[in-house]
Amino acid sequence: IIVMLAWPSKTCYVNNFINKCFYSVDGDLANTLICLDVSENRLGPEDIYRLSTSKLKQLNVSANQLMAVPESITDYHCFLLLEHLDLSDNGLSSSKTFYVLSTLHNLQALDMSTNRITFIPYLITKQVTLL
């Protein structure tokens, strides 16, 4: 289990912790972290809401095992300040993912390349810059 505690920087990289379970962003880090990169960690949809912090603006969850973005991120008001989200190389296949992401009102850039998405709803393309 990886639990991240006090960190001197506003950016944190936690990559390639294969076969380990990412648990949460906690402590002082949760109050100061602006950019988080947890790519290549085999995270699943149930791990997403645990990554939320009060000031997070950039999140990279590329190359994990996200088959979907859980609707629960809207229930917990997660990622309220999130501006950039990288979901590339995951295996996402449902256009419903875009409706979940549309609740992230500050989202400006979204990378969903190398997924299995075949349809992008029109309203979403007007809201964010797709990379």
From TrEMBL:
Please name the InterPro entries in this protein's record.
Answer: Leu-rich_rpt, LRR_dom_sf
Q: Which domain of life is it from?
A: Eukaryota
Show the Pfam families listed in the entry: LRR_1, LRR_6
Q: Which UniProt keywords apply?
A: Cytoplasm, Leucine-rich repeat, Repeat
**What residue stretch is flagged as signal peptide?**
none
Question: Gene3D superfamilies attached here?
Answer: Ribonuclease Inhibitor (3.80.10.10)
What SUPFAM superfamilies does its record include? L domain-like (SSF52058)
Q: Indicate where this protein is primarily found.
A: cytoplasm
Q: Which GO terms describe its cellular component?
A: cytoplasm; nucleus
Localization per record? Cytoplasm
Q: Which residues cross the membrane?
A: none
Which PANTHER family does the entry link to? X-RAY RADIATION RESISTANCE ASSOCIATED PROTEIN 1 XRRA1, X-RAY RADIATION RESISTANCE-ASSOCIATED PROTEIN 1
- The protein, known as: Uncharacterized protein
Organism of this sequence? Sipha flava
Query: Lineage of the source organism?
Result: Eukaryota, Metazoa, Ecdysozoa, Arthropoda, Hexapoda
